[in-house]
Amino acid sequence: MLPKLIRNLVLGGLALCQFATALASELPLAAASGRSSYVLADSIGLGLQLDKLEARLQARLGGPSLINYGAGRSITHAGSPQDKSALASVAADREVIAKASVIIIILGMEQREASFADSQQELMRELKSIAPQASYYWVDIGATISVHAANWSARNKIIYDNAGRLGYSVVSRYKAIFGADADPLNIQPGQNFPGWSTEAGFGGPGNVHGFDAELSLAIVAALDAADAQAACRRAASRRSYVLGDSIAYGLQMDGLALKLQERLGGASIINYDGGRSINHRGGQIEKSALESVEIDREFIAGAHVVVIVLGTNQLEPSFAQSQRQLLQALKAIAPHARYYWVDIGATLAAQVEGWSARNKIIYDNAAEMGYSVISRYKAIFGPRADPLRIVAGQDFPASTADLVGWPPDNIHGAYGALSRAILEAVSSGSCAVAN
Questions:
Q1: 2-229 shares its CATH topology with 236-432
Q2: Which alpha helices (DSSP H) does 236-344 contain, by range?
Q3: Residues 220, 60: contact at Cβ < 8 Å?
Q4: Tell me: the pLDDT tens digits for 118-159?
Q5: Mapping DSSP to helix (H, G, I), strand (E, B) and coil, where does residue 62 land?
Q6: Which residues fall within 8 angstroms of residue 416, CB to CB, at 6 or more apart?
């Protein structure tokens, strides 16, 4: 398969080199920092090398760059031409890795590990023992061969779910190929890359290699976003406050407070209570959301970002009226904060009609009440899911009903997906938040 790949890339080689040179001249100057980068990859790394990603990274970061690739390799199994697994390459490249400020991993397509999650953890542990201060990125799987798509979707879920715990950011090859609305957790079996025909030799319709320039640009864009966020943190730390019910408890357990501190540079508090609503008390701290606002008044007054995760517990006589009351109370304390409301993502069959109606209120009131909506429902079920029409009794992907004795459903879970959606939302334009 490699000769075909190389031929396709070489045909556009002159144009790509010209494009890379032009791109480099437009990138922010980074020579002063002199940061080096290391890319550890399977056969996708060859395409990136031919696309001059090393030169792009050198121009972007100001330091040397190395792509270590092996066609057909996995984390634990050797590929060619090096005849080294990813783990063996880490041992061989230890000196280079130790100097790297940015490490990019493109592995997972070759399904040869007994446990991909365990091997992924082992690889990250080895890399971080050598380069603990580096910024890490993992590229998701963008290939679409029909006979492998389901397993690749499952691997992408592991890649996204483990990002926070293992300490890396995800760069989406799948979205780089198919667009921002494409769902890497639901790879479309046999779908050819735009304008391409099926790549022979892989047992079914679809593609594996190609669109290297698009992935290169996505990688550089991820570095740009990270640098912009770091500059934002240096300019002024931003405090965040999350007010919610049992879903907020799940976010606390997922480490969202720490993630917000790392992303925004300021202190973060998650105030949660299982079973509570805006004006009814829950079962843990026994405070309604409105009561918690008064208790946390001092912290809220200094908050730049406020995230609200309420509405699942249908206890208010009028949700819209209670929503207005809560936002008035919050904005009287922190008028310059940026506000976000998380929609309802639960699917309990007996309650979805009410939850869909509440989501409509959440979306309809956003502009008038001055908040942005973060969709838990889309974070769980994908960008095409409709939070105004929650599917009754639909289990979360790879989950079963989470409340024994209740109808088919899920209420709790998928916190990693929601944490990522929140972090993405609050990071967007965060430098514009009032100080």
A1: yes
A2: 246-253, 256-264, 289-295, 297-301, 319-333
A3: yes
A4: 999 999 999 999 999 999 999 999 999 999 999 999 999 999
A5: strand
A6: 160, 161, 163, 164, 254
Bridge partners (DSSP) of residue 102 are 37, 135
Domain regions of the chain by residue span? 2-229, 236-432
Q: Which of these, 276, 342, 359, lies nearest to 305 by C-alpha position? A: 342
* Terminal Cα-to-Cα distance of the chain (whole angstroms): 55
- Please check whether residue 221 is in contact with residue 176, taking contact to mean a CB–CB distance below 8 angstroms: no
With both helix axes pointing from N to C terminus, report the angle between 149-161 and 415-427 in degrees, rounded to the nearest 10.
Answer: 70
Nearest to 289 by CA among 262, 313, 259, 264: 313
Alpha carbon of 329 to those of 209, 244, 374, 404: distances in Å?
A: 54, 15, 21, 37
Is the whole-model pTM more than 0.90?
Answer: no
Task: Report d(CA 373, CA 343) in Å as an integer.
Answer: 7
pLDDT at 4 over 90: no
At 392-409, the pLDDT tens digits run 988 888 665 555 444 456
Bond before 81 cis per omega within 30 degrees: yes
- Indicate the residue type of 306: V
CA 313 to chain centre: 27
**Rounded to an integer, what distance in angstroms lies between the CA atom of residue 318 and that of residue 308?**
17
H-only helix segments in 27-135: 44-50, 53-61, 86-92, 94-98, 116-130
Q: Which residues pair with 243 in a beta bridge?
A: 271, 308
Q: Which two tokens stand for residue 395?
A: 């289990």
Q: Write the CATH number of the domain with boundaries 2-229.
A: 3.40.50.1110
As assigned by CATH, the class of the 236-432 domain is alpha beta
Burial of 403 (0-12, 13-18, 19+ CB in 10 A): exposed
User: What DSSP designation does 411 have?
Assistant: -
Closest CA to 138 of 110, 102, 114, 85: 102
Q: Residue 422 in contact with residue 252, Cβ under 8 Å?
A: no
More confident residue, 13 or 222: 222
Give the C-alpha separation, 245 to 256, whole Å: 15
Residue 103 dihedral angles phi and psi, to the nearest 5°: -125, 125
Q: What is the pLDDT of residues 20-58, one digit of tens each?
A: 333 333 334 343 358 999 999 999 999 999 999 999 999
Q: What is the DSSP letter of 71?
A: B
Q: Kindly state the DSSP code that residue 391 receives in the 8-state scheme.
A: P
d(CA 211, CA 140): 14
Determine phi and psi for 183, rounding to 5 degrees: -110, 105
